[in-house]
Design goal:
The chain is α+β, with helices and mostly antiparallel strands. It has helices at 13-23, 27-42, 88-97, 132-146, 158-192, 196-223, 236-245, 247-252, 272-293, 325-330, 346-358; strands spanning 2-3, 46-54, 57-65, 71-78, 106-111, 116-121, 230-234, 255-261, 267-271, 297-307, 310-317, 362-367, 373-380. β3 and β4 form a beta hairpin. α5 (158-192) runs antiparallel to α6.
């Protein structure tokens, strides 16, 4: 399959580029446009776009310039773990294994938040990959890839979450001050109130105000998470602690936990408190999905190091899944709850995504063929934080 590179086409490249950015289409067409963008604007002789197809497979779309100036498009899949996207050396090896790209003058650009990367091949060493043009192309490519609407991996649009984070930060600050006054005045009035009815009313006001404050705290944590306080620990321990903290809730709902790990110790350097919070929220999300479905079920958690230096965690439940297009589209968005679909989302999932991003990792959801949701998480074992 070849795409003609000329000015007599019915639709020029710039028109196709703008259409992709405005509307968003399939991964196949978007990957081809992104690859062509780098060939046309950055003078690459070949561009290979990599994206997650499944936890054990990457999809690859390669454009190469032919002698006659036309572009040859080739598509294939690579049998490697998706966590390869967090290891530059292994990612370049995977790209070379396709036989579609290689040589001395290669440049690698990764977008972990979009589960994507591009490997560029240049005809010579005169290209400066740090030039301002490359920064513009990086931004444009990320926007295009974020607009893909049919990937098997469910990921958030980082631009949408960043906009929501800005709103949450401002709104949280403005709401928190009057809320503190309401809580304070309620406590003062309770000290002198003798009427049982009025005391109950004041206690209700206070309880609901505290509930709002908890929501504000969550929104501000999502908007501006604290810088990671790095320490070394065994990643299996916070997983076990999360399971223990949710054991009572799981048992009352007939939910069973199954934990498997490739080894008894997987050392990681990260913020232990943030990682523990993230793991608890992700597992709680699966528990609530099964509880909302009103039937017993199983949540399996597996931990391994498929790629050297990267921890890979998979949380799989056999609940109802995200049963509507709206739930799938908004799964990561704060302020959205899928409880009507049997799954409580709210701030838990977007907070988990934010913590993963802070630790330079990847997080995505995948629907099972027979229902349920699989949450795939990859973290570098030696995170430097952001």
């Amino acid at each position: 399959m070849a795409a003609q590179q000329n000015t007599t086409s019915d639709r020029t490249f710039i028109e196709r580029l703008l259409e992709q950015q405005a509307l968003g289409t399939s991964w196949k067409s978007t990957a081809a446009v992104v690859a062509e963008l780098w060939i046309r604007q950055a003078s690459a002789s070949a561009a290979l776009i990599l994206g997650v197809e499944s936890p054990t497979q990457l999809t690859a779309t390669c454009l190469r310039t032919r002698v006659d100036g036309t572009l040859q498009v080739t598509e294939t899949t690579i049998e490697v773990p998706y966590s390869t996207l967090l290891c530059s050396e292994k990612l370049l090896e995977a790209a070379a294994s396709t036989g579609l790209i290689g040589g001395l003058h290669l440049s690698l650009h990764c977008w972990p938040q979009l589960l994507s990367a591009i490997v560029l091949q240049f005809p010579d060493a005169t290209i400066d990959p740090t030039a301002a043009l490359f920064q513009i192309l990086e931004t444009t490519s990320a926007r295009l890839l974020a607009a893909v609407n049919n990937r098997p991996a469910m990921i958030p649009d980082p631009a949408v979450l960043e906009a929501m984070a800005e709103y949450s930060a401002g709104a949280g600050h403005e709401i928190n001050n009057p809320l503190a006054s309401i809580i304070g005045q309620t406590q003062v009035l309770l000290k002198t109130e003798t009427s049982v009815d009025r005391r109950q009313s004041l206690e209700t006001i206070g309880a609901q105000a505290w509930r709002v404050r908890d929501m504000i705290i969550n929104s501000m944590l999502f908007a501006r998470p604290p810088a990671p306080q790095l320490s070394s620990f065994n990643l299996i321990h916070p997983i076990q602690e999360a399971l223990e903290s949710l054991e009572g809730q799981a048992e009352s709902s007939g939910v069973q936990f199954l934990l498997s790990a490739a080894s008894e110790k997987l050392a990681i350097t990260a913020d232990r408190a943030q990682i523990s919070h993230m793991l608890t929220e992700l597992i709680r999300n699966s528990v609530e999905a099964l509880r909302g479905a009103g039937r017993p079920g199983t949540i399996s958690i597996s931990l391994q190091e498929s790629v050297p230096g990267v921890a890979e965690l998979i949380i799989r439940d056999d609940g109802p899944g995200l049963i509507s297009a709206t739930a799938r589209r908004n799964a990561f968005n704060p302020f959205y709850s899928g409880r009507s679909a049997g799954r409580g989302l709210g701030f838990g999932l977007c907070l988990a995504w934010r913590i993963v991003q802070t630790h330079r990792g990847m997080l995505y959801l995948r629907e099972g063929s027979e229902g349920g949701i699989t949450c795939c998480l990859a973290l570098p074992l030696h995170s430097t934080g952001k």
